[in-house]
Amino acid sequence: MQTDSVLYDYVIVGAGPAGCLLANRLSLNPSHRVLLLEAGGQDNYAWIHVPVGYLYCIGNPRTDWCFKTEAEPGLNGRALNYPRGKVLGGCSSINGMIYMRGQSRDYDAWAAQGNKGWGWKDVLPVFKRSQSHYAGDSDLHGGQGEWRVEQQRLSWTLLDAFREAAAQTGIPSIPDFNGGDNEGCSYFQVNQRRGVRWNASKAFLRPVAQRPNLTVLTHAEVSRIEFENGRASAVLAKVGQQERRLSAKREIILCCGAICSPMLLQRSGIGPRPLLERLGIGVRHELPGVGANLQDHLQLRLIYKVSNGQTLNQMAGSLWGKMNMGLRYAINRSGPLAMAPSQLGAFARSGPEQATANLEYHVQPLSLERFGEPLHRFPAFTASVCDLRPQSRGTVEIRSALADAAPLIRPNYLSHETDLKVAADAIRLTRRIASAPALARFEPVEYLPGASLQTDEELRQAASSIGTTIFHPVGTCKMGQGRDAVVDERLRVHGVTGLRVVDASIMPTITSGNTCSPTVMIAEKAAQMIIEDAIVDDKGISAGTAPLAELAVEPLKGSASR
Questions:
Q1: HSE-up of residue 454 (Cα within 13 Å, Cβ side)
Q2: In DSSP terms, which residues pair with 300 in a beta bridge?
Q3: Mean pLDDT computed over every residue of the chain
Q4: Which residues are annotated as a binding site?
Q5: What is the phi/psi pair of residue 237, to 5°?
Q6: Which residues contact 182 (CB under 8 A, 6 or more apart)?
Q7: Which of 236, 346, 372, 387 has the fewest CB atoms found within 10 Å of its own CB?
Q8: Residue 92 lies inside a defined structural domain of this protein
């Protein structure tokens, strides 16, 4: 094994949304040596950048870890594909590109659990700091950052009718989901730039890749963390075909996501004692919460056949239609190839007992049996609805100490009675929208799960049959205090020095919407805390202390997002 002679200040493991942003912010100080490690390769695969290309990135080992869940009892024993980005940009290179913050109550709940500084009023300025919103600076949005947010470059008559039908059902049309209360219906805003995917690599990494104090290694898979005198001191990684030991003077920061971050901790001897002892891994520090508290949004894909309207099923069903779509994208980056996987969104309450919206709809002018299969030959739309606040909790565990062993992922979907009730209520609400006057001219007919299913028991069984992940796993390295917490409010791993986790795994509870941009916010906030803590550790020895603090929050000059 080769031990690198370079002693880095920060070693960041994982170049997804969090890792790319941290590499940018921490390397702003030229005295910091920063190493960013990514298990995947460069984000130079053409399909990453064409928005519809997610179809060719998910399930592709070039860009996806290609994980699978265990057989899920709540899903009639089905095992699900569980995509996670394995490429520069991480999941932002293969996801649905939807810019969504969630609800103010999400973050206020984090703060109420003892996580000081994580309330809505605290995190809103952090969201704005990295944002490059198409409308510029405002009370709710930032225009000077790097994380580009634009309106979609398309419109569908069928989706407009669905939006009107939602309003007739009590779900108002609103212009923006990101003001703290997202109840309503609107077209999603997306992380695109002029019809091209805008991933975290483009936003945060490429503009600073030439900094002499920043090193980025791809195809670098970390097997475990090493410790010296109780401090996380190095990582062992296979870089290409070479085993290397890479050392950190200040901190090792895990940005591997809700699946890989707990796995790396467990392989390093940090986690539940019974699991580690069963696998013959020495217990470095017992933390029962590592890999627990897994939460995800389970989507129910309701499909309606329609008449008298155009859907993507027809457009993509002919050679001429495909040529036309390609031509539109080539000329002005518009049309179906510029589409995010979901175009229209709606947030609603499953029942009057809900204080705020607890359902999210992703509405699409297309349909298919399951992801990766061809579109149906008949015209149809899909109204996919998910429970934003699931009560079911799952786990992520390693199978062995070997880095190349696939994880045991058990989301435990629909294992809580409340989740089953919300699922049945969500199907009923969707049916009310589909039967509203605004959609009558399209004569919608329920194809999936089937209008004959009416009782609570039938609808619960239907949810088990059609439910699938919407790719939002979080929570497996929970932020907080107590026996089940893994990191504190500054994202430092409990009981270990020099080690943090900065990604979606730290969420105590899942946010009410898509999880990529909350992860960017988490990293932006973490960057400031990491630099502040470094100043404290140095006891203010640097004459450049004040400028360093300013660098932590200043948007990158000359960013490609401007």
A1: 2
A2: 385, 467
A3: 93
A4: 87, 222
A5: -140, 145
A6: 100, 101, 102, 103, 347, 357, 512, 513
A7: 372
A8: yes
Q: What's the average model confidence in pLDDT over 181-193?
A: 97
pLDDT at position 157 over 50: yes
242-254/2-13 β-pairing: parallel
Under a CB-based contact definition with an 8 Å cutoff, are residues 312 and 375 in contact?
A: yes
Contacts for 450 with CB less than 8 Å, ≥ 6 apart: 462
Instruction: Please say whether the beta carbons of 190 and 97 come within 8 A.
Output: yes
Q: Over the stretch 465-520, which tens digit does the pLDDT of each residue have?
A: 999 999 999 999 999 999 999 999 999 999 999 999 999 999 999 999 999 999 99
Annotated active-site residue 32? The verdict is no
CATH of the domain at 284: 3.50.50.60
Query: Do 289 and 484 touch, CB atoms closer than 8 A?
Result: yes
Three-state SS at 385:
strand
Answer yes or no: is 228 within a domain. yes
What is the distance between the alpha carbons of residues 90 and 545, in angstroms, rounded to a whole number? 32
8 A C-beta contact, residue 294 and residue 473: yes
More confident residue, 219 or 551: 219
For 227, other C-beta atoms within 10 Å of its C-beta total: 20
Instruction: Report, as an integer, the average pLDDT of 59-65.
Output: 97
Q: Which residues are annotated as a binding site for FAD?
A: 87, 222
Cis peptide before 518 (omega within 30 of 0): no
Question: What pLDDT was estimated at residue 539?
Answer: 66
Neighbours of 544 (CB within 10 A): 12
Q: Where does the pLDDT of residue 339 fall: very low under 50, low under 70, confident under 90, or very high at 90 and above?
A: confident
Q: Are 401 and 437 in contact (CB under 8 A)?
A: no
**Three-state DSSP string of 296-344:** CCEEEEEEEECCCCCCHHHHCCCHHHHHHHHHHHHHHCCCHHHCCCCCE
Helix (H) or strand (E) holding 126: helix 120-130
Q: Give ∠ CA 394-398-400 in degrees, rounded to 5.
A: 155
Domain assignment of residue 260, given as a range: 1-97+207-294+404-409+474-557
Q: Which pTM was predicted?
A: 0.95
Choice among 1-5, 434-438, 469-473 with the minimum mean pLDDT: 1-5
| 138 in any annotated domain | no
How far apart CA 68 and CA 80 sit, in angstroms, is 6
Which one is catalytic: 32, 141, 472, 494? 472
Q: How many domains does the chain have?
A: 1
Domain-located, residue 35: yes
